[in-house]
C-alpha cells in the first residue's frame, strides 16, 4: 500500500493484517526499520489502534509489543493527563490533522513521564487516511526544570517557604472571613550575624526560624518568607483578647531558645530577637493597603524597642479607604447607579484609551494596548473597575465588539497620519465562549482593512481552559492570523501545562509582581528573571506591566525583558494623542548607564547569581560611575565592586555589594 503524509512523505506498508519478512519485501524492511528507530514511534490504523511500535517506545513505556498491538493509544493517558491537551489530540485525529504538543503520560508501572508528541496522518492516492504515524520523546527532565522554575517563582530560595507572590494569592483566595490579621516579622541584626559568622550561618538561622514558626502556627494560618530578614504570617480566628495574645506568644516562642549555627567548623549558639507589625484584615472590601499598614506598624515597633515592645498593631483604616480605587483617571464620590453607567457606556460614553508598549531593547514603540474608559456627562473618566460590575455577559460581548471596532479604526486613522503600529484588546472569558466571537473579530478586521497580525487579543490568566468550546474558539481566532497573549501572568490560575497546550505568542507579567520591588528587591528580580527565561524557553514574547519609574524600567531592561509598559513611559491616553506622543517621546533609558539603585542592583545581581565576574573593565563598568555618585557611603562599595572585576570574583564581596545596593534601593526616591 502506497501512502503519503501531510508533508509529502510517501511510504509503502503491507496491507492489514501486518505481515512479516515473507510478505511484501519493501513493506517488511520499512516496518523493521521503523521498529528499530531510536525515537519512540508507533503506527496506528485510522481508528487509532496500534499496528507497529518501535523498540524505543516499549523501552520508555514498559509495555511489551504484544501488549500494545491492537490497543488504543489512550492506554498511556492517566489521572494527571491534561483534559484540554487530550481533547486537542482527539480533535486533531478526528479531523485528520497533524498534532504537536506535550502531554503527561503514564508507563505500565504507573510512573508518569512528560511526552513530546508529534502525530501525522498518512493518506492513500485518493486522500483517505490509512494510518497515523506518531513520534514521541521523553521530556521529563525538561519539564522537571520548568516545574523547578515554577516552584522558585512562588517560594523563597533560602527557607523554601511561600514567597510574596504566594502570600498575595493566599490573601486573594481566603475571601472576606472576619477575625484575621497579617503580621510582618523582622529579624533584628541579621546583617550583623552575616558579618560575624558568614552568610551560610545567616541562611541556616533563617531556615531554622522558618521551621520553628511554621511548627507554631494554628490550623488555617499561613506563613511566608518575603526575603532577606522578613517573614509574613496570616493569623486566622483572631478577634482580640486572649486569642491574639496566645497566637503572638506562640510566634515569639520561636526565638526564645538559641539557634545553633556552624562557625569555623564548630557549633555556636546564637540568640536573636524579632520585631512585629500587625494589621487587621478588613472584613469587607479590598485589602490593598494591608501590607503597607503592617509594614508601618513594624517600623513603629522598631522605634519603640527601647521601651521593651516587640509588636505593634496598626490602626484600622477608615471605611472610605477600604473602597478607594487607586487605578483611576478620576474619582467620583457620587457614582451613578449601575444601570445608568451601563446606559451611558453604550450611548456614546465608551472610548478606548491607548497605552504604549515599548521595546525595552531599542526604546521604540512596539504596539499600543487599548483600554476601555467610560466618560460621564460631566467629563469624568472612569476605569473598568468602576463600570464592569454593572455589565452582564451580553453587555461584555457588546463592549468587546465596540472596543475592538474603535481600536481598529484608530489603526486606520494612524496609518493615514504616517504611524503604523499594532494594537492589543482584552478578551473576557465569557466573550471567548460566545460561538460568534471569531466571526466578530474576522468581520472587524475585514471592515477596517487591517492585517490580522497587527491585532493581538489578551486573555486573562484566570481564564480556565477546561472546555472544548473555549479551545475551539481559540483555534478559530488563530486561524484568522491574530496574535494571542496570556495576560497578567502571576495573578491567578496559570499553569505550565496551559502554556504548553495553548499557542500563546506572548505573556504579560502582572504589575503586582513589582509591588514590593523596593522592600524586597532581590526576590522580585529573581521572579522576573525566572519568568522572562520561561518565556524564552517557550519561544514567546514577554511584556512587563507596571513600570512606573526609571528604576523599575532599568531593572526590567537589564534582566532582558523585551517589552514593557507603564507610567514611566506614558499613561493611557486618548487615541488622538498617540501620534503626537510618538513624535515627542524620548526614552528615559540610556545604554550602558544606570541611573537608579534598582538598575545598579539588577546589573550586579545578574552576575552574582551566576557566580560570574563583571564582564567589562572596571573603568567601563556602569556601576563605577553609579558608585562614584554616592561618595558619602561608597568607600567600601568601591572596594567590593573592584573585586567583582577579578577573574575569580569573591562571592562574599559580591553579596556585600548587593546588600549595600539593597539599602540604597529601599531609601532611594523614585526617579520619573
From TrEMBL:
GGDEF domain ranges (all copies): 178-316
InterPro entries: Biofilm_reg_signaling, EAL_dom, EAL_sf, GGDEF_dom, Nucleotide_cyclase, PAC, PAS, PAS-assoc_C
One Pfam family here: GGDEF
Residue ranges constituting the PAS domain according to the UniProt record: 26-96
Protein name, entry field: EAL domain-containing protein
Domain PAC, first and last residues per copy: 97-151
SUPFAM superfamilies: EAL domain-like, Nucleotide cyclase, PYP-like sensor domain (PAS domain)
Cited SMART domains: EAL, GGDEF, PAC, PAS
Positions of the EAL domain: 334-586
NCBIfam families found in the cross-reference section: GGDEF, sensory_box
Region (Disordered): 1-21
Amino acid at each position: 500500500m502506497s501512502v503519503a503524509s501531510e508533508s509529502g512523505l510517501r511510504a509503502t506498508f503491507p496491507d492489514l493484517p501486518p505481515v512479516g519478512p515473507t510478505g511484501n519485501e519493501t513493506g517488511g524492511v520499512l516496518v523493521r526499520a521503523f521498529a528499530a528507530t531510536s525515537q519512540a514511534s508507533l503506527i496506528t490504523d485510522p481508528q487509532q489502534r496500534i499496528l507497529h511500535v518501535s523498540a524505543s517506545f516499549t523501552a520508555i513505556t514498559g509495555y511489551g509489543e504484544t501488549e500494545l498491538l491492537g490497543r488504543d493509544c489512550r492506554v498511556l493517558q492517566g489521572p494527571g493527563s491534561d483534559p484540554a491537551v487530550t481533547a486537542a489530540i482527539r480533535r486533531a485525529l478526528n479531523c485528520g490533522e497533524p498534532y504537536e504538543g506535550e502531554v503527561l503520560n503514564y508507563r505500565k508501572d504507573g510512573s508518569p513521564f512528560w511526552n513530546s508528541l508529534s502525530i501525522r496522518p498518512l493518506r492513500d492516492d485518493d486522500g483517505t487516511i490509512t494510518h497515523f504515524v506518531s513520534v514521541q520523546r521523553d521530556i521529563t527532565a525538561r519539564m522537571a526544570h520548568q516545574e523547578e522554575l515554577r516552584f522558585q517563582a512562588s517560594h523563597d530560595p533560602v527557607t523554601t517557604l511561600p514567597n510574596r507572590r504566594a502570600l498575595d494569592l493566599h490573601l486573594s483566595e481566603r475571601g472576606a472571613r472576619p477575625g484575621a490579621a497579617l503580621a510582618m516579622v523582622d529579624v533584628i541584626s541579621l546583617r550583623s550575624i552575616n558579618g560575624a559568622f558568614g552568610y551560610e550561618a545567616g541562611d541556616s538561622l533563617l531556615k531554622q526560624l522558618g521551621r520553628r514558626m511554621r511548627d507554631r502556627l494554628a490550623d488555617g494560618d499561613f506563613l511566608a518568607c518575603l526575603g532577606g530578614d522578613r517573614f509574613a504570617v496570616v493569623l486566622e480566628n483572631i478577634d482580640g483578647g486572649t486569642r491574639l495574645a496566645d497566637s503572638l506568644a506562640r510566634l515569639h516562642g520561636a526565638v526564645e531558645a538559641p539557634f545553633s549555627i556552624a562557625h569555623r567548623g564548630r557549633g555556636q549558639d546564637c540568640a536573636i530577637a524579632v520585631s512585629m507589625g500587625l494589621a487587621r484584615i478588613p472584613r469587607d472590601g479590598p485589602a490593598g493597603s494591608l501590607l503597607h499598614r503592617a509594614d508601618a506598624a513594624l517600623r513603629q515597633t522598631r522605634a519603640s524597642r527601647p521601651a521593651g515592645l516587640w509588636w505593634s498593631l496598626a490602626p484600622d483604616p477608615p471605611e472610605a479607604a477600604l473602597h478607594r480605587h487607586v487605578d483611576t483617571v478620576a474619582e467620583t464620590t457620587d457614582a451613578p447607579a449601575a444601570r445608568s453607567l451601563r446606559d451611558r457606556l453604550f450611548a456614546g460614553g465608551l472610548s478606548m484609551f491607548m497605552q504604549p508598549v515599548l521595546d525595552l531593547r531599542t526604546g521604540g514603540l512596539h504596539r499600543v494596548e487599548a483600554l476601555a474608559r467610560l466618560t460621564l456627562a460631566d467629563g469624568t473618566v472612569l476605569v473598568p473597575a468602576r463600570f464592569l460590575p454593572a455589565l452582564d455577559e451580553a453587555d461584555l460581548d457588546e463592549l468587546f465588539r465596540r472596543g475592538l471596532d474603535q481600536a481598529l479604526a484608530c489603526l486606520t486613522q494612524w496609518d493615514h497620519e504616517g504611524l503604523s503600529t499594532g494594537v492589543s484588546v482584552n478578551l473576557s472569558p465569557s466573550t471567548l465562549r460566545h460561538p460568534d466571537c471569531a466571526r466578530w473579530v474576522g468581520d472587524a478586521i475585514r471592515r477596517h482593512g487591517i492585517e490580522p497580525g497587527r491585532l493581538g487579543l489578551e486573555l486573562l490568566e484566570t481564564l480556565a481552559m477546561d472546555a472544548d468550546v473555549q479551545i475551539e474558539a481559540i483555534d478559530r481566532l488563530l486561524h484568522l492570523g491574530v496574535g494571542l497573549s496570556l495576560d497578567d501572568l502571576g495573578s491567578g490560575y496559570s499553569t505550565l501545562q496551559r502554556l504548553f497546550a495553548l499557542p500563546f505568542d506572548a505573556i504579560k507579567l502582572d504589575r503586582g509582581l513589582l509591588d514590593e520591588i523596593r522592600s524586597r528587591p532581590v526576590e522580585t528580580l529573581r521572579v522576573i528573571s525566572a519568568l522572562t527565561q520561561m518565556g524564552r524557553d517557550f519561544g514567546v514574547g514577554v511584556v512587563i506591566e507596571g513600570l512606573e519609574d526609571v528604576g523599575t524600567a532599568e531593572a526590567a531592561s537589564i534582566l532582558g525583558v523585551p517589552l514593557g509598559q507603564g507610567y514611566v513611559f506614558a499613561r493611557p491616553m486618548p487615541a488622538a494623542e498617540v501620534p503626537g506622543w510618538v513624535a515627542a517621546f524620548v526614552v528615559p533609558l540610556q545604554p550602558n548607564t544606570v541611573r537608579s539603585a534598582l538598575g545598579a542592583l539588577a546589573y550586579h545581581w545578574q552576575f552574582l547569581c551566576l557566580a560570574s565576574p563583571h564582564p567589562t573593565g572596571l573603568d567601563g563598568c556602569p556601576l563605577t560611575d553609579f558608585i562614584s555618585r554616592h561618595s558619602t557611603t561608597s568607600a567600601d562599595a568601591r572596594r567590593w565592586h573592584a573585586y567583582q572585576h577579578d577573574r575569580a570574583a569573591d562571592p562574599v564581596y559580591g553579596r556585600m555589594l548587593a546588600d549595600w545596593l539593597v539599602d540604597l534601593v529601599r531609601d532611594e526616591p523614585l526617579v520619573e
